[in-house]
Design a protein that fits this description.
Blueprint lengths: L3 H8 L2 H10 L6 H5 L6 H13 L3 E3 L8 E3 L1 H31 L16
Antiparallel strand pairs: 1-2
Helix pairs in contact: 1-4
Length: 118
């Protein structure tokens, strides 16, 4: 499993998130990835190095080209971690639903008001 600290640090930059969004549509070269940005090819290459180090993309050599694509393992690690959080939230909401179905007193810790209580 990739280091989630590095993964989320890589995702903290909007340019890197935009690069990942572009790669979600398919493989691309550094020059193709650089097109929509007002930055140099070396600057994009530095962003790609961070994404690669975080395990979010992979590059392969194809002659003089180095196409990039998403790394399924890196994306799966994020999804797995988020899945744990989703499960915890679901359990919390299920417990809350059960408590609400039982009916709660007006103020937690105090007895419910009855007609006899002022």
């Amino acid at each position: 499993m990739p280091d989630l600290d590095h993964t989320f640090a890589a995702l903290s930059d909007p340019t890197r998130r935009a690069i990942l969004s572009r790669l979600a549509r398919g493989e691309a070269t550094v020059m193709q990835l650089a097109e929509p940005f007002a930055m140099t090819q070396p600057a994009i290459s530095r962003h790609l190095k961070v994404l690669e180090g975080a395990g979010l993309i992979v590059r392969r050599a194809e002659g003089t080209r180095r196409p990039c694509r998403l790394a399924p393992e890196g994306i799966a690690a994020i999804d797995q971690w988020l899945g744990l959080l989703r499960e915890a939230l679901t359990r919390n909401y299920d417990r809350l639903d059960a408590l609400l179905a039982q009916g709660l007193p007006e103020k937690p810790g105090l007895p419910e008001k009855t007609e006899e209580t002022p």
